[in-house]
Amino acid sequence: MLIAVCEDQKNDRQLLLEYLNTELERLRICAEILSYESGEALLAAAQKLSFQIYFLDIFMVKTNGVDTARALRARGTEAAIVFVTSSRDYFAEGFEVGAVHYLVKPYKKTDVRTAMERCIKQMGKAERYIEIVVNREKRRILLSELIWAESNDKVCWLHLKSEDVRSYIHLDELQQLLSDPRFLRCHRSFLINMDLVNRVDKNFFYTIDDAEIPMRQAERTRMRENYESYLFEKMRRRD
Known about the structure:
Strand order of the largest sheet: 2-1-3-4-5
CATH superfamily of the largest domain: Response regulator
Number of domains: 2
Order of helices and strands: EHEHEHEHEHEEEEEHEEEEEH
CATH class of the largest domain: Alpha Beta
CATH topology of the largest domain: Rossmann fold
Number of helices: 7
Distance between the termini: 23 Å
C-alpha cells in the first residue's frame, strides 16, 4: 500500500506521519508513506506512482488541498482521500470529491485511527501481515502470500506463493495471529487461505499450488458450507 501525505507545515506533517506509522503498526498493514510539501509536488509524483490513500491539507499555498483532490479525481483515481484542515468550512467540497474523512486540527491519535479505519473499509482488504520467528529472526508474512499452513508437533510449515517457511509456532497460535475471515481451519493440522483455493470436492480443498488439503472427516459438510458462504459474501461485497 502506498500512502501520500501532503502538508506544507513541517511540524504538522511530522506529527501526522508519526500517528500514521503508529496506526499501520497497530493494524499490521504493510505500507509506505511518502510526504510532500505542496499540491504541485504531490500531483507530479502521482503521475508516476499509484497511491491508495491521500491525506491532503486544505490550506496550502498555490494549489490547495481541495484543488489537488479535484485534479486527482479528474485523472480517474479512486483512492481514499482524507482532508486535514483547521476549519470546518470545506465539508461541501469534501463531499464533491468523495472524501472519506476530515481531520480537524488539532487532532488526536484516535482521530487518525478513525480516518485510517474508514480508508481501509472503503478499500476493502489491505495488505495485512503477521510477524513470526523464522530461523531465529522475526519476519513479516503478508496474509495475501500465505496459501496454506500445516502443523507437525511443534513445527508449523507456512506455504507461501514464493517459498515454504518453517516456524516453531502452534497452529492454534497462528490461527489467532491471522484472525481473518479468509482463513479456514479445515483440519486439526491444516489451515487454508480460501482466496487461494482453486476447487473443492467432498474430501479435499485444492489450492493454487496444487496441494490437496484434507477436511475434518466429521465436519466435511460444514467445511464446504463455510467455504461457499465465504465466496458468496465476497461476491456480495463486490456488487
